[in-house]
Design brief:
The complex is a heterodimer of chains A (265) and B (263). Chain A has ten helices and ten strands. Chain A is an alpha/beta fold and 265 residues long. The longest helix of chain A has 18 residues. The two termini of chain A are 35 Å apart. Chain B has 263 residues and is mostly helical. Classes of the chains: A alpha/beta (265), B mainly alpha (263). Chain B: This is NitT/TauT family transport system permease protein.
Chain lengths: 265, 263
C-alpha cells in the first residue's frame, strides 16, 4: 500500500475536484470548484462560514451528488462513498455511538474482519490517539477532546487512504485543539495518509497544511491554492512565530477579508 | 440551603406508601363492616387477604398463574419482534410507511379481545390463540415507538455509518435500530402492562378454564368462593406491579447509555 502511494504521490493527485458545483433550487452554494488534493499530504480547505465547505466535503465523501462537475478519487469518479475513505465530524457526541463503549466504537468500521485482526487494529488505533486503558468507557463519560480522539481512532481503524475532517476541532477548547492538531500531524506523518481538513480557522489551516485551498464567500469558488513550505515537524511556538507562517497567515486573512468573490474560476 | 421541595428519603417514601395502602384498605373495611355500604358480594379486605392465604398453598392456582405468565410472555415476545421489525422498516423507509400506514391505523383500533374467538376458530383452543390476542394488543405501542425512535436517529450518526461504506439496510440494522431501542423498550414497558390485562381478559373469554382468568371464571360460578375470586384478581394486579418493577430495572441496566444521547 505504501509503495503505490509513494509511486503516485509525485505524479497524480489522490483527489481531484473538477468544476464541482452544487445548488439547492435557485441557491448556488458552490460554484465550479476545481482543486487537487495531493496524496500523503495534509490539505486544508479554508473559507468564511457559510461558504459551502461542509457541502463540498459531503460531495467529496460521496454522501451528496454535485449538481455539475466531478470528483475523482484515485482516478475513479466518485459515485457513492468510495472505499478507503473515513470521515471525522465536528459533532463527536453525535458521531460516536452512545450505546457502544470506546473499543466497540473504534471497531465499528471493521466488523467484517477476522476477530484477531480487529482486536489488533483497535488496540493500535486507540494507542495512536493516546487512549489506552480508556477502552471500556462510554464516549459520553469522556471529555470532548477525548471523544474526538475516539472518533479519530475509529477512522484510523478502517485504514483509510483518505481522511476527511469537517471542522474537527471547532467544538473543543483551545489547549485541546492545539494537542489534537499535533496529534493529527504526528499520525499523518507516521501512516502517510492523505488528509483533507475543512476549517474556518486561518491559524489552524496554515499550521496544519501542506496545501491550503482558500474558498471565497458564497457562491464559492477557489480564491487561491497555497502550498505551505513550512518545515516539519511543526510546533505551536516555533512554527507560529516563523516569519513565513506570519506572511502566509496574513495573506490568507486578506483573501478571506476581501468582500468580492475572487475572479479566478 | 433548603430546597423548596426537598426529595423525601427512600425510607419515608416507602413508609408513606405503606400507610396509604393500609389506610385505604382499613377505610374500605370500616365502610363495609359499619353497614354504610350494604351490597352483597363486595369484598372485605381482610377476607381477600385470607383468600390470598388460601391460594398460596394451592398448587393448581400457581399452575394457572404460570400459564398466564407464559402466555403473556409469548405474546409480548411476538409483539416485540413484529413491532420492532415493522416499526423499524416504517421508520426507515417512507415507502414502507406509506404502504402500511392505513393498515396499521385500521388494525390498531380493533379490540384485540374480540379477535380472540376468531383465532380459536382458526387455530383451535390452547395457549397460542391467547398469546396472539395478547400480541395483537401489545404490538402497537412497540411498533409506533420504534418507528418514531428510528426517525429520530441523529443524522450525523447515520452519515458516519454511511462514510464507512454502510448501505441503507446496514445503517438501519447497525445504527437506527440500536439507537431506537430505548424508545422501543418504552413501548415494551407500556405493552407489558396492557398485555397482562389482555391476557387475563382473554382467558375469561376463550381461556377454556386456563390461566388466572380461567380460575376466576370457574370460581366465580360459586358464590361462596368470591373471596378467592377477589384474591386471584389481587394476585393478577400484584403480578402487574411486579412486571413493571422488573421492566424499570431492566430499562436502567440495559439502556443506561440513554444518558449519553446527544441533546
Amino acid at each position: 500500500m505504501t509503495e503505490t502511494s509513494a509511486a503516485t504521490a509525485g505524479t497524480s493527485a489522490e483527489l481531484l475536484l473538477d468544476a464541482v458545483s452544487k445548488s439547492y433550487g435557485d441557491n448556488l452554494a458552490v460554484r465550479s470548484i476545481s482543486a487537487e488534493v495531493p496524496a500523503s499530504k495534509i490539505s486544508v480547505i479554508v473559507g468564511p462560514s457559510g461558504c459551502g465547505k461542509s457541502t463540498l466535503l459531503r460531495i467529496i465523501s460521496g454522501l451528496d451528488n454535485p449538481t455539475s462537475g466531478q470528483v475523482r478519487f484515485e482516478g475513479d469518479p466518485v459515485d457513492g462513498v468510495p472505499e478507503g475513505l473515513a470521515m471525522v465530524f465536528q459533532d463527536y457526541s453525535r458521531s460516536l455511538y452512545p450505546w457502544m463503549r470506546v473499543d466497540k466504537n473504534v471497531e465499528f468500521p471493521i466488523k467484517h474482519l477476522p476477530a484477531k485482526e480487529r482486536a489488533e487494529r483497535v488496540r493500535f488505533a486507540i494507542e495512536e490517539v493516546g487512549l489506552t486503558h480508556k477502552e471500556k468507557l462510554y464516549p459520553w463519560q469522556m471529555s470532548g477532546g477525548m471523544q474526538q480522539r475516539v472518533a479519530i481512532a475509529r477512522a484510523l481503524a478502517s485504514h483509510p487512504k483518505l481522511l476527511l475532517m469537517d471542522e474537527p476541532y471547532a467544538s473543543v477548547d483551545a489547549q485541546t485543539r492545539a494537542d489534537l492538531e499535533d496529534l493529527l500531524m504526528r499520525i499523518q506523518a507516521e501512516l502517510g495518509i492523505t488528509v483533507l481538513v475543512v476549517t474556518h480557522d486561518i491559524d489552524e489551516s496554515v499550521y496544519l497544511a501542506d496545501r491550503i485551498i482558500v474558498l471565497s464567500s458564497p457562491p464559492s469558488v477557489v480564491a487561491e491554492v497555497i502550498d505551505v513550505d513550512l518545515p516539519r515537524p511543526r510546533d505551536h511556538i516555533a512554527t507560529k512565530t516563523d516569519q513565513r507562517f506570519v506572511e502566509i497567515r496574513s495573506h490568507v486573512t486578506r483573501l478571506l477579508r476581501s468582500k468580492e468573490p475572487a475572479a479566478t474560476a | 440551603m433548603k430546597l423548596l421541595h426537598e426529595p423525601l428519603s427512600g425510607r419515608s417514601q416507602a413508609v408513606l406508601g405503606i400507610v396509604g395502602t393500609v389506610g385505604a384498605a382499613a377505610v374500605w373495611e370500616g365502610v363495609i363492616r359499619s353497614g354504610l355500604l350494604d351490597v352483597p358480594g363486595l369484598p372485605l379486605p381482610s377476607g381477600v387477604i385470607a383468600g390470598v392465604a388460601d391460594l398460596v398453598p394451592d398448587g393448581t392456582f400457581w399452575d394457572q398463574v404460570l400459564f398466564t405468565l407464559g402466555e403473556w410472555m409469548l405474546g409480548l415476545v411476538i409483539a416485540t419482534v413484529a413491532g420492532v421489525l415493522v416499526g423499524g422498516l416504517m421508520g426507515a423507509f417512507s415507502s414502507v410507511f406509506l404502504a402500511l400506514e392505513w393498515p396499521v391505523e385500521a388494525f390498531r383500533v380493533l379490540p384485540s379481545v374480540a379477535v380472540g374467538p376468531i383465532l380459536v376458530l382458526l387455530i383451535g383452543q390452547g395457549m397460542l390463540p391467547l398469546s396472539l390476542t395478547v400480541a395483537l394488543s401489545c404490538v402497537w405501542p412497540i411498533l409506533l415507538n420504534t418507528m418514531y425512535g428510528v426517525r429520530a436517529t441523529d443524522t450525523t450518526a447515520v452519515m458516519t455509518a454511511k462514510t464507512f461504506g454502510n448501505g441503507e439496510l446496514a445503517v438501519l440494522r447497525k445504527v437506527k435500530i440500536p439507537s431506537a431501542l430505548p424508545f422501543a423498550f418504552t413501548g415494551v414497558r407500556i405493552a407489558a402492562s396492557i398485555g397482562l390485562l389482555v391476557a387475563v381478559s382473554a382467558e375469561l373469554l376463550i381461556g377454556g378454564g386456563n390461566g388466572i382468568g380461567g380460575y376466576i371464571l370457574e370460581n366465580s360460578a360459586n358464590a361462596t368462593n368470591l373471596d378467592l375470586v377477589y384474591a386471584a384478581t389481587l394476585v393478577a394486579g400484584l403480578l402487574g406491579v411486579l412486571v413493571n418493577l422488573v421492566m424499570a430495572k431492566l430499562d436502567d441496566v440495559v439502556f443506561g447509555w440513554k444518558k449519553g444521547l446527544a441533546q
